[in-house]
Amino acid sequence: xxxxxxxxxxxxxxxxxxxxxxxxxxxxxxxxxxxxxxxxxxxxxxxxxxxxxxxxxxxxxxxxxxxxxxxxxxxxxxxxxxxxxxxxxxxxxxxxxxxxxxxxxxxxxxxxxxxxxxxxxxxxxxxxxxxxxxxxxxxxxxxxxxxxxxxxxxxxxxxxxxxxxxxxxxxxxxxxxxxxxxxxxxxxxxxxxxxxxxxxxxxxxxxxxxxxxxxxxxxxxxxxxxxxxxxxxxxxxxxxxxxxxxxxxxxxxxxxxxxxxxxxxxxxxxxxxxxxxxxxxxxxxxxxxxxxxxxxxxxxxxxxxxxxxxxxxxx
Length: 315
Description:
Layout: E1 6-12, H1 16-26, E2 31-38, H2 45-58, E3 68-70, H3 84-87, H4 109-119, E4 125-128, H5 133-141, H6 145-148, E5 151-155, H7 170-174, H8 176-183, E6 189-192, H9 194-197, E7 201-202, H10 204-211, H11 216-236, E8 241-242, H12 244-253, E9 258-263, E10 265-267, E11 278-280, E12 292-298, H13 300-311
Helix pairs in contact: 1-11, 1-12, 4-5, 5-8, 10-11
């Protein structure tokens, strides 16, 4: 880490691809991880928080002093949904995982988000890779938070199709009301959605490259991605899983790996087949002001090169 490292908070619901994303963050000296904040999502909050502690144990020296904060155990209004078919019952379906490095602090994740932003106005980036419940709660408790954060980079939504429903991506649908709060808050926001993440597929060759260095973090990530790939083969006919959440971390590290377009984005919260859809005004037909920069293209080979090179640096 250096004095010029970007201070980030990693907020998510690990989860296979959240774990891979967080390992990328720990392996990247350009980022200084201030804390992990966990939420409901891929599995329940108890499991996501346990899994966050496991990722800390895998994360090498950069992870040693990073605190962990548990957050929301359910969406703002909807009933909780989990994704065991994709991430297994535990969320981290790998053998011989280490014990969690630490247990969570007493402070709620939303309160930590507020405290960290107020301690360093304009400096902190939140990389969110799950439902946005923690951030929405923080914005409701402290509306000034939107003007204190440097940026939020969210893996969620998409400019077209969904994956949980035909219209909605999983993180958006799990708590659409929270996503609507964040998109309506005025916080500087970048969205890394399915339209780009589904171009980043961890096929067998890319998984083998993670295993090749022989380090524990690479081997565990490869095993997780092999489990994850089974769902993608059955559902989509692909030869591997999509690297949704790692691409959001890469966007904070190397925004030049993606092509960005500023546009108005709203989140459909109404009950029905479009609930959770991120409505992206790609062509400016509404005349509304842009409230997000949305990823519309990605250099997938360069992303995988970065991901593989960085994970090889971990123990």
